[in-house]
Amino acid sequence: MAVLAESGSNPDVDLLYDINGLAKDAPHWFDRIMEFVGEYGLLVAMVLLVLGCWWSVRRRGDEEAASSVAALVWAPLAAGVAVLVNVPIRGFVERPRPFVDHRGLDVLVSGKTDFSFVSDHATITMALGVGLFVANRRFGLAGIGVALLEGFCRIYMGVHYPTDVVGGFALGTAVALLLSPPAMALLTPLMKAVERSPRAGWLVRSRSAGERGSALLPGSRSELTAEERDLAA
Fold first, then answer.
1. Residues 61, 205 contacting (CB under 8 angstroms)
2. CA-CA distance, 136 to 113, in Å (whole number)?
3. CA-to-CA dists, residue 38 to 43, 149, 157, 159, angstroms
4. Which residues contact 119 (CB under 8 A, 6 or more apart)?
5. Which burial class, exposed, middle or buried, applies to 48 when counting CB atoms under 10 A from its CB (0-12, 13-18, 19+)?
6. Residue 86 contacts by C-beta under 8 Å, 6 or more apart in sequence?
């Protein structure tokens, strides 16, 4: 395989060497940053995006709040399901990590002894990103951007082939989208029930948003004229 990489006849390996070669030319401190970002930082960023989207949805408190929160609940569930689906895929393909078969790679993370295809990090982040997109396009596009950066980092770090990352993106997207209809059919009524709960309703809609919504209901006292309020009093 190393010979294939040198001859340029294997685009997957060729791209691996091109991207990982950037790590060799970068300063040591930058590689350490990329190591942290690619291993932990972007996963934390995805969690923060999900929480930020949830906070935005509940503060806005419109009629679609329950379905949006249901989509946000589905996003991490989709990531978990995608990782479980990846377990038999990895066992079936049994593709070694790139540094096992190829010499000269700058491997930034040690201790990776499991199989390479497909990348769990790429799978998780893309499933979260697509799940976010279902809930909110603005946050979803940001999440998909984070997932793409995660994929680049995994190749840069020398722990995955480009096709491992592409496979992870495909798996995360497929699970998040294909299972979204039944998941939303189950989760949306549940979130509507939570929204109606006097104790847990704040998880779906903030108190101030609920008050604004009730103020706009037809026939509410806020819509009555001054004369009508006097008569009602």
1. yes
2. 37
3. 8, 8, 8, 10
4. 151, 154, 160, 164, 165, 167, 168
5. exposed
6. 118, 120, 123, 168, 171
Average pLDDT rounded to a whole number, residues 131-147: 93
Which CATH fold would you assign to the domain 2-232?
Vanadium-containing Chloroperoxidase; domain 1 (1.20.144)
- 125 and 147 Cβ atoms separated by less than 8 Å: yes
DSSP 8-state symbol, 221: G
Residue 204's nearest CA partner among 99, 106, 64, 79 is 64
- Residue labelled with tokens 């395989």: 1
Q: Give the angle 72-147-132 at the CA atoms, nearest 5°.
A: 15
CA distances from 121 to 7, 140, 147 (A): 30, 17, 8
Task: Give pLDDT, residue 208.
Answer: 59
Nearest-angstrom CA–CA distance, 201 and 131 = 22
pTM: 0.82
Residue 6 has pLDDT above 80, yes or no: no
Measured CA to CA, the distance from residue 181 to residue 195 in angstroms comes to: 21
